[in-house]
Amino acid sequence: MFKVKTVLLITALVTAVAVVVLALLGTNSAKQAYAAPTIVIDAGHGGTDGGVTGAESRVTEAEINLAISFMLEEELISRGFNTVKTRTSEGTAAIVTGEKQQDMEKRKATILSAVPDAVISIHCNKFPSSERRGAQVFFNPHSENGKTLAARLQDSLNILNIVEVGRGFSSLGGDYYILNCSAYPSAIVECGFLSNAEDEKLLLSEDYRKKLVKAIADGLEKFLYVDFMKAR
User: Fold this and answer.
1) Is the pTM of this model over 0.85?
2) Do the Cβ atoms of 84 and 114 come closer than 8 Å?
3) HSE-up of 180 (CA within 13 Å, CB side)?
4) How far apart are CA 146 and CA 155, in angstroms?
5) Given this model, what pLDDT does residue 97 score?
6) What's the pLDDT tens digit per position in 76-107?
7) Dihedrals φ, ψ of 62, to 5°?
8) In angstroms, what CA-CA distances link 66 with 78, 81, 189, 209?
9) What is the domain partition of the chain in residue ranges?
């Protein structure tokens, strides 16, 4: 009788372990299903459209946007993401350089073709007052996922803003083509104000750019794995 109970106990333990193992495997399989989200990285401007220029260095926004987009791609790939870029050179995304409408339509086509989990558009800001500074995120007010994505990105970037600017900001709704051209969660990250000399120096610093792309990647991960994926 004792031997029978022992055998039954061992069988029950083996069964329980098997159930736990299978559950863990199931969880890992679920994670693997979302292990490689696709992110479109849009480097704003390019070609004859240089965007805004640095207050002191006269560096173009297009140049900084492209450099940050490559760094962001590297950071996201290191975290297991798939990436697609709308612009990979100093020119625009358009076939004919300088044609703004064609450029934007080409970016839209890239986004739609990628079927991404999120779109991050990299820009630099400008303001009449040279005192204005800091990183700020914009979203389509009609997109709940876009709003959530922007909030996550802004929260993460505010860690840098508090250190460098002394305060955090809220993400803002905006009517911009890159936010409106698809239904995918999209956000514009204005990395700083080139009209502000201190922000300009930061944006020209490789060390700060690394902090910037890490903050963007951190916010994106929170959106994907806490908000967006959970709701799918």
Assistant:
1) no
2) yes
3) 7
4) 14
5) 55
6) 999 999 999 999 987 666 555 557 889 999 99
7) -55, -40
8) 19, 19, 13, 12
9) 1-33, 36-231
